[in-house]
């Protein structure tokens, strides 16, 4: 009786109380479940051209309990699949309901296996990633793995959107694993991944990659990059690197070739960084396009001699000519006038030293001094683009702010995301980050950059009917005969619709200057790009302005010891601008000094109590006056805001201070004539 009661209780527990649990266990034992892989979302260019697609592919599946001759089966599969026989044998003899033998095989292999009609060997359909354009945009697209997961590039950064959610299929089988006819079958369809539309235009991408291929054929260099951007939206229209790889067979290439140099690698920008120095100087009012400078070929900074790229220097020049000539000593003086705190503020505002957040894996921040690390020499070298490292995407984003009127925009590669049935899921709109300079300053910088193309190192960029502004950059590897050469330009210069950057890394062949290497590449790219984008040429003016407006020369009034309101009134009357240093109402000092003759529109810096020490920033480089007559030397001194004392007559044979030294505006330069 006790045993009977115990059995009745136990049966009740199993059959009634735990009924659901044991039903699920029984079902699980006789249901064989296979994952149904979702179709990975497509990647299109901005016009709907397919760049990455998912095609159907057969995967070989083994059902171990149904295989009658495992050794013979393994041998036959090994011959067709070109895989190790022992490895296949281990797989098909596992204690499992079903196992993968080989995934995503080609059609020829699948046909051969089907013809063998091997017991226990079946197929399931999966999707295989295919890139119909081959190497085109490979560094952007990246690639995905056999398990439908993104491994590189946009395939990785947008993996959550592209991969979808897997489904499942369940088939009922008997105790020895055989499928039960008319048994339970369960199917849950997968959710396919979303489709992504890029900002990239495949035609512009092709143009960029074509020119890079030609460049690396003509020149001996390690690599090259071209980036094209719409400065008004932040959209990247093309991003190309060479050498490249084929994402359809990515495993056959060195992993080093998978890197997207435009986002992940840094380089020294050289003179292209002078665009940032120019923007900061004009915005802060420490320089005016007509301000006069003198370049004797070098400048002394904290005991160090910094040379100009041109032997003997550029002599007397306006700031507009300093930009046009890419004169290093001139830019050193702008950096000194700004001061490290102010200059650093602009460098950070333009986005250097931080990621652009372009939503691409492996983005680099660039290399930048911290503020305490910047001394007089570091400040001087940064001003002309040496001693800092940037990524191409950082530089083109910063320069696009100059092109669009001063607004820094977040760059982006994806235009919109849509579901498989075309429903809009997300649209990426232009994303302003911050205003870095005024529209007036941006316009002036663009005008100065036009001078580089019209009369400076960017002349080979000229394109009939289009006004282009741009800047070259040449930076030598330290201790090596290798160069990074680059050119960044915008057009039309008055209202840019396109900004493009060309960088050639590790150039070892001759010629090695940006004007001879990067500029012709840029010209070839934009020549085709403007036609494709249908950017209209500039209409010629009916009346040519043969004579430029004459620059009026004015004498700086003495405003020392005057109140700010009276000083501003006197300076405004002469057509001069004002910049304030310090706080207060009574002016302690001024630069330029009283009675100095300057161009109308120049800036006069007014110092208040406690700010007199800042006057040291606004020093002037002493020109080389040897061989000049007094009248010629006096004119140059007047342009620079310096004064002249002389002894003797004839030509100048000696001067004090010597050329290259920096002195205060208004100081006397003594010369001896013979």
Automatic annotation (TrEMBL):
GO terms, molecular function: penicillin binding
Subcellular localization: Membrane
Keyword flag Membrane: yes
Domain PASTA: 550-610, 616-674
One Pfam family matching this protein: PASTA
Keywords: Membrane
UniProt GO BP: cell wall organization
Chief location bin: membrane
One annotated Gene Ontology cellular component of this protein: plasma membrane
InterPro entries per the UniProt record, alphabetical: Beta-lactam/transpept, Beta-lactam/transpept-like, PASTA_dom, PBP_dimer, PBP_dimer_sf, PCN-bd_Tpept, SpoVD_pbp
Key word Membrane present: yes
Similarity section: Belongs to the transpeptidase family.
UniProt protein name: Stage V sporulation protein D
């Amino acid at each position: 009786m006790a045993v009977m009661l115990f059995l009745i209780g136990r049966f009740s527990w199993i059959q009634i109380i735990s009924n659901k649990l044991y039903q699920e266990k029984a079902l699980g034992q006789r249901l064989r479940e296979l994952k149904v892989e979702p179709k990975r979302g497509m990647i299109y260019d901005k016009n709907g051209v397919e760049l990455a697609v998912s095609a159907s592919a057969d995967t070989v599946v083994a059902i171990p309990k149904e295989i009658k001759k495992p050794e013979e089966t393994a041998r036959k599969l090994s011959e067709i699949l070109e895989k190790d026989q022992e490895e296949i044998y281990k797989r098909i003899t596992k204690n499992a309901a079903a196992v993968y033998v080989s995934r995503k095989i080609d059609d020829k292999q699948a046909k051969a296996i089907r013809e063998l009609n091997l017991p226990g060997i079946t197929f399931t359909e999966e999707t295989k990633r295919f890139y119909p354009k081959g190497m085109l945009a490979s560094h952007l697209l990246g690639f995905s793995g056999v398990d439908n997961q993104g491994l590189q590039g946009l395939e990785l950064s947008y993996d959550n959107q592209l991969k979808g959610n897997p489904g499942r299929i369940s088939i009922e089988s008997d105790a020895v694993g055989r499928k039960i006819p008319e048994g339970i079958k369960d199917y849950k369809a997968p959710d396919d991944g979303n489709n992504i539309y890029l900002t990239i235009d495949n035609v512009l991408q092709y143009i960029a990659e074509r020119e890079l291929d030609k460049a690396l054929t003509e020149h001996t260099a390690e690599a090259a990059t071209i980036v094209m951007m719409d400065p008004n939206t932040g959209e990247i229209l093309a991003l190309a690197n060479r050498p490249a790889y084929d994402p359809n067979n990515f495993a056959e290439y060195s992993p080093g070739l998978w890197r997207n140099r435009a986002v992940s690698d840094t380089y020294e920008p050289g003179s292209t960084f002078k665009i940032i120095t120019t923007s900061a100087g004009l915005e802060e009012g420490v320089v005016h396009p007509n301000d006069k400078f003198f370049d004797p070929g070098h400048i002394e900074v904290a005991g160090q001699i910094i040379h100009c790229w041109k032997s003997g220097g550029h002599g007397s020049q306006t700031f507009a000519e300093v930009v046009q000539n890419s004169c290093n000593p001139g830019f050193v003086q702008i950096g000194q006038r700004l001061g490290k705190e102010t200059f650093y503020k602009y460098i950070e505002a333009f986005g250097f030293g931080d990621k652009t957040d372009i939503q691409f894996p492996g983005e680099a921040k660039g290399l930048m001094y911290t503020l305490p690390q910047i001394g007089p020499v570091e400040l001087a070298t940064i001003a002309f683009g040496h001693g800092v490292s940037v990524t191409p995407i950082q530089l083109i984003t910063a320069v696009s702010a100059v092109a669009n009127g001063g607004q820094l925009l977040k760059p982006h590669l994806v235009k919109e995301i849509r579901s498989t049935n075309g429903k809009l899921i997300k649209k990426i709109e232009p994303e302003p980050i911050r205003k870095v300079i005024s529209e007036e300053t941006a316009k002036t910088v663009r005008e100065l950059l036009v001078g580089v193309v019209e009369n400076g190192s960017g002349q080979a960029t000229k394109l009939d009917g289009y006004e282009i502004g741009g800047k070259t950059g040449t930076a030598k590897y330290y201790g090596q005969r290798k160069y990074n050469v680059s050119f960044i330009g915008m057009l039309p210069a008055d209202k840019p619709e396109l900004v493009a950057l060309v960088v050639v890394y590790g150039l070892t062949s001759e010629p090695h200057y940006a004007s001879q290497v990067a500029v012709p590449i840029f010209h070839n790219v934009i020549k085709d790009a403007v036609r494709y984008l249908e950017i209209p040429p500039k209409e010629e003016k009916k009346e040519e302005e043969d004579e430029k407006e004459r620059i009026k020369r004015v004498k700086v009034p003495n405003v020392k010891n005057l109140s700010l309101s009276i000083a501003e009134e006197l300076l405004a009357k002469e057509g001069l601008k004002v910049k304030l240093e310090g706080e207060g109402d009574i002016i302690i000092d001024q630069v330029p000094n009283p009675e100095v003759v300057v161009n109308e529109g120049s800036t006069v810096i007014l110092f208040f109590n406690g700010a007199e020490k800042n006057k040291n920033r606004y020093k002037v480089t002493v020109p080389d006056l040897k061989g000049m007559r007094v009248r010629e030397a006096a004119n140059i001194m007047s342009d620079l805001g310096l004064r002249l004392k002389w002894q003797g007559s004839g030509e100048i044979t000696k001067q004090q201070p010597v050329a290259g030294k920096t002195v205060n505006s208004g100081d006397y330069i003594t010369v001896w004539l013979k």
